[in-house]
Amino acid sequence: MSRGARRAGAGQGAAAAVQLLVSLSFLPRVVEVQVAGVLDDCLCDITSIDNFNTYKIFPKIKQLQERDYFRYYKVNLKRPCPFWAEDGHCSIKDCHVEPCPESKIPVGIKAGHSNKYLKVANNTKELQDCEQANKLGAINNTLSNQSKEAFIDWARYDDSQDHFCELDDERSPAAQYVDLLLNPERYTGYKGSSAWRVWNSIYEENCFKPRSVYRPLNPLAPSRGEDDGESFYTWLEGLCLEKRVFYKLISGLHASINLHLCANYLLEETWGTPSWGPNIKEFKRRFDPVETKGEGPRRLKNLYFLYLIELRALSKVAPYFERSIVDLYTGNTEDDADTKTLLLSIFQDTKSFPMHFDEKSMFAGNKKGAKSLKEEFRLHFKNISRIMDCVGCDKCRLWGKLQTQGLGTALKILFSEKEIQKLPENSPSKGFQLTRQEIVALLNAFGRLSTSIRELQNFKVLLQHSR
C-alpha cells in the first residue's frame, strides 16, 4: 500500500477553513470561560491537558492513524440488536424500513399492506431526510485488491501468534475490514427517537443508579422537572469513586462523539459535492450552558476526564509494545518499523505527562467487595458495548463500536498492571495479550479524544481573534 493511499481523505480545503473561521467567531464566550479549572477526582487542570495534547500528542496520533496498521479496522456491522427489535436504519420520526421513492417501494406495500410507509413516501421532506441519512451513514467499502490480499496475509500472521484472551467476533464471516480514512466520523443525519433510545438505555439502565434518579439527557429528552440536573449531581457526588468514574467515562464518550458531529456537519451540498464544517447552532444546543441548563460544561469536563483515563492506559501499556517480540505487522518491513517507532514515541510522551489519573485509588477497599465491584463495573461496560449493535446508522455504529472497544481495552490495561509488569521479553504471556483489533481500537479511540480536545482549542483561539 502506497504512502499516497495513507493520505486519502485528509484535509478540508480552503473553503472549509474559511467557513470554520467565520462560523466559530460567533461561538459564545461563556463556553470558553466555563470549561476551565481543575477536574474533579484528579489533580489535573484543563489548560495543562490542552497544551500537552496540542504540542505533543495530537500531531503524532494523527500521523499514526494514517499508517496502514491503524487505518483498517475489522468490524461486524451486521449483528442484530440484542435488546429491542430494530426499526430500520433511518431514525427520523415515522420513517422506518423503506425510506425510498414510491417507485421503489415493494409491491406488497403498494398494495396497502403498510399504509404507514405509503404515508412516508408522500411526505417529501421526511423522505428526503431519510434518504440523506442513509446516504451519509453508509459505509464506504472501497478496498483495493492489494489491500484484500494483504488482509489475508495479516490474518495468517495473527493466527500464528499465541493468543491468551477471548477473541471478539472479528473471525465471524460477517466481519469486514473498513478503511477508517474513507469513513470519517461526522454528521450523518442519524437522530431522533432511535438515537435517543440508544443513549437513554446506556444512561438509565447501565450506569450505576437507582431508577428514581434521572440523569439530564440532551435536549431531545423529555424534561422531568427543573431540578433534575442538580438532584442528579448531588446524588452522583455521594457515590463511591468507581461509580462516579464509570458515569464520567460514558458522559465523556458521549460528549466526544457529539463534538465530532458538530465540528464536521453537512453545511450544504452544491452540485453533488458536500461541504463540511462546524455547525454552531448544533454545538450550542449540545454544549451551551444556557441551552443545556448548565449541563454542557459538565459534559466537556467529562471529555477531559476520559482523555486522562485513556492517556493513563497508554502510559501503562508501553512495556507491552517496547518488547522486540511485538511487531505491528503489515508485510512491509520498513513501514512496520517506522510505525512502531512512531507508536513508541507516543508512549514516551504519555509517560512524561506529570498529572496522571491515579487508578490505584480505584477498587482499593475490602478485597472481596473490590473484586465484586470490579466485576460489576466490567459487566456494565460490556453491556454498553452490546448496545452499540442497536445503533441504526452503519457509520455511527462503526465509530461507536470502535470507541467503546478502545475504552474497554484501556480499562483492561488499567486492571492488568501486574500482568504487564511480568511480561517476558521474547515470548507471549498468558497473563496479558492484545489482539490486533484491540490495538487498532485503543489508538484510534484515543485519537478521537485528542481530536475533540483539539477542536475545543481551536474554538478558543478563534474566539480571541473574533474579539
From TrEMBL:
A molecular function GO annotation: protein-disulfide reductase activity
Cofactors (names): FAD
Gene Ontology cellular component terms for the protein in this record: endoplasmic reticulum lumen; endoplasmic reticulum membrane
Active site: 393 (nucleophile), 396
Binding site residues for FAD: 186, 188, 199, 251, 254, 286
GO biological process: cell redox homeostasis; endoplasmic reticulum to Golgi vesicle-mediated transport; extracellular matrix organization; glucose homeostasis; insulin processing; protein folding in endoplasmic reticulum
Membrane topology: Peripheral membrane protein
Record keywords: Disulfide bond, Electron transport, Endoplasmic reticulum, FAD, Flavoprotein, Glycoprotein, Membrane, Oxidoreductase, Redox-active center, Signal, Transport
Keyword Glycoprotein: yes
Family: Belongs to the EROs family.
Protein name from the UniProt record: Endoplasmic reticulum oxidoreductase 1 beta
Gene giving rise to this polypeptide: ERO1B
